[in-house]
Amino acid sequence: MAVNLDQKLEKQKTIDQLKDIEQDYKYGFHDPEDEYAFKSEKGLTEEIVRKISEMKEEPEWMLDFRLKALDIFQKKPMPTWGNTEYLNQIDFANIHYFVRSSEKQGRDWDEVPTYIRETFDKLGISLLEQKRMMGVAVDAVIDSVSVKTTFKKQLSELGIIFCSFSEAVQDHPELIKKYLGSVVPYTDNFFAALNSAVFSDGSFCYIPKGVKCPMELSTYFRINTAGTGQFERTLIVAEEKSTVSYLEGCTAPMRDENQLHAAVVEIVAMDDAFVKYSTVQNWYPGNKEGKGGVYNFVTKRGMCRGVNSKISWTQVETGSAITWKYPSCILKGDGSVGEFYSIAVTNNFQQADTGTKMIHIGKNTRSTIISKGISAGKSHNSYRGLVKVGKKAENARNFSQCDSLLMGDKCGAHTFPYLEIENKSAQVEHEATTSKIGEDQLYYCQQRGLSEEDAINLIVNGYCKEVFNELPMEFAVEAQKLLAVSLEGSVG
Amino acid sequence: MLVIKDLHVSAGELEILKGIDLVINPGEVHAIMGPNGSGKSTLAHVLAGKEDYEVTRGSIEFMGEDLLDMEIDERARAGIFQAFQYPVEIPGVSTAQFLKSVVNSIRTEKGEEELNAMEMLKLMRKKVKELGMNEALLKRSLNEGFSGGEKKKNEILQMAVLEPKLAVLDETDSGLDIDALRIVAEGVNTLRSAERSFIVVTHYQRLLDYIVPDFVHVLYQGKIAKSGDKNLALKLEDEGYDWLKDEISVSSIA
Ligand SMILES: Nc1ncnc2c1ncn2[C@@H]1O[C@H](COP(=O)(O)OP(=O)(O)OP(=O)(O)O)[C@@H](O)[C@H]1O
Ligand SMILES: [Mg+2]
User: Fold this and answer.
1) Residue of the nearest CA to atom 5 in ligand 1?
2) pLDDT band, residue A107 (cuts 50/70/90)
3) Which helix (H) or strand (E) holds A478?
4) Looking at the structure, do residues B248 and B160 belong to the same domain, yes or no?
């Protein structure tokens, strides 16, 4: 496929624009697109879905799953909650649904193309050195294809499977068949159906019975190509008495046009298993005028299947033009525990609508929701959460705390707590506060010598502390830095 | 070090300071006394740069620079420290963390290397011990749930760590028990030096037994009604402020 002159000029323009604004968004560089080995035609058709499946050399059952999902996607109406004004602007026919960065997946680090490795360096993730030193196993997904999974060998000695989703389909079809769609079926919602039809890659993680995963498992996602959607799929299965902590980080370069990200994450926890899932989401939020940015529509759900199992979600959401995201827990096993810790920061014209669903089904189930929203500029930040206690869920407990911090008077904070209680023994507690950043606090900090910006960061970090405490150390440090970047220029 | 000339300050419609003249040389301790609402805290805030107040007339020079031209944090980094009459609570930020951010941001500004967590902790522990404070306070959220006395000690701790050139202590003695008063005063006295000056705002002579001032000023209805040496404080303790009223009305007639 020859690259014509127009495209070249277009690209130079984008690069120039990027240079202008690069200082605003640290991750705003992108790899040379010419080096992509395959890029699907725009638009979503059965042919594309078949092509994706074929290129990935998938078995018949996988193609079947995709085609059924496609059928649902084409029948389902667009969702109607939240602010749909922007959604209507998404042109699903104008998206590349699949991009592959090189012909073959780099099995060996040396085979990974140089420009991708450079990207990791720029991102501060040197797969080989840094993360190995930190003892984190990394699977990195650029655009659609999983690049490389480190530490596979050490992990496999414990029986842990941590690999790209595509590999898992080839190497562990019985597990994928059993669990794929078991928590988030493709019929679940519009974006889940879309993802199920076209998902490109992602990570698969399996922790066998009784194994405590000795290191943090981590995935980095990155959208690179213009006009692409990214649809990754993550599946985590924790067998009886196993434990795992999983980290997910995301970045995308600056683009004038909006990009679509529609991921699905499924977690299954058996008896006494514990899965901790942490996200730092930093997709490009658009520029100060609200142009560009990623539309981030993600379905994340965990199933506490076993007795006394536990799933804990922690998220720091600083990026994306629009985020709709509700990491949820289905508390099916008796005595199971669900947690949701969230920081969502919005500035300029960003919109975040995020929260959780805690579905209590088993007896003595407990859930905790701590949500910290920070809104600046002309942004809107909503907490939307459901606590549902089913008929048989004796002695269910929930505690929810939703705090909103406003910076300036042009932004909005909204709280939508939904309660559906069908069992009288349930104890549900909800606290909500909305506050403005205190003038007196700012003055006090500045009097000690902090700049206004440093003062804001300090106060905001204090406000978010309960959530930061839930993050693994090095992730927390990164998250605090991101928070500072997101709030730059938000006051004064 | 500090030269205040004909300073007039308003908050909204209200004129609070109505022509203050004050010169403070390096190493001097000036006590400022005066009845409630006379403008003592306002003066402290204006020196530190609080934005609620408008300087309508006059000038303030600090170390040869026009202080009124400087931002709040610039003034702080230039060496002005205000110990607050009502210290502010910052939830989720420990005292240790707060001091570390402050110290390192000042060091970075000066082009010095940041102190690491260990060095910082060592420095704070030393000061905490000297002030007879409970070390556990370092780990708690700044001023949150601190007793009145603990808050005041915490201000002095910050001063001891930051080593300012001019410290303005606004009623640091109120709320302190007798032992704490002595310890805080000792803390201030150890910091006294030929280069460092203090403005000590207080209602009570008692503090000045420990921190012996070079000058005592009485602020009355937005003006310095009387200046003298430490004996002026003794006279105020005995006689209150009533005699000043007569003196002022006499002088304004004359
Ligand atoms: N921001 C403000 N807005 C309006 N009025 C103010 C403001 N700050 C101070 N005032 C008023 O100015 C006067 C002086 O206040 P200030 O706090 O300086 O008094 P003070 O001498 O420190 O009193 P105290 O001994 O009670 O601490 C008071 O009448 C007070 O109500
Ligand atoms: Mg006062």
Assistant:
1) B11
2) very low
3) helix A473-487
4) yes
**CA count, 13 A, side-chain hemisphere, B221:** 7
B122: containing domain: 92-145
Which of these ranges, A34-38, A384-388, A468-472, B2-6, has the smallest mean pLDDT? A34-38
Contacts of A15 (CB under 8 A, 6+ apart): none
Return the pLDDT at A87.
Answer: 58
Which of residues B128, B145, B162 is at a domain's end? B145
Q: Do B76 and A449 touch (CB under 8 A)?
A: yes
Say what the ipTM of the complex is: 0.95
How many A-B residue pairs are in contact by the CB < 8 A criterion? Answer: 72
Q: Which residues make up the environment of ion ligand 2, defined by Cβ < 5 Å?
A: B 40-41, 85
Of B145, B166, B181, the one marking the end of a domain is B145
Question: A115 and chain B: CB distance < 8 Å anywhere?
Answer: no
Do B29 and B63 reside in the same domain of the chain?
yes
Please provide residue B9's backbone torsions phi and psi, each rounded to the nearest 5 degrees.
-135, 135
Tell me how far the alpha carbon of residue A355 lies from the centroid of ligand 2, in angstroms.
Answer: 45
Which one of A448, A468, A470 makes the best mutation probe of the B interface by having the most chain B beta carbons within 10 Å?
Answer: A448
Q: Is A440 on the interface with B (CB under 8 A)?
A: yes
- CA A105, A109, A110, A113 dihedral sign is positive
Do both B57 and B104 map to the same domain? no
* Interface subset of B 222-241, CB within 8 angstroms of A: none
Q: Rounded to an integer, what distance in angstroms lies between the CA atom of residue A293 and that of residue A375?
A: 17
Give the CATH number, domain containing residue B199: 3.40.50.300
Do B65 and B113 have their domain in common? no
Rounded to two decimals, the pTM is 0.79
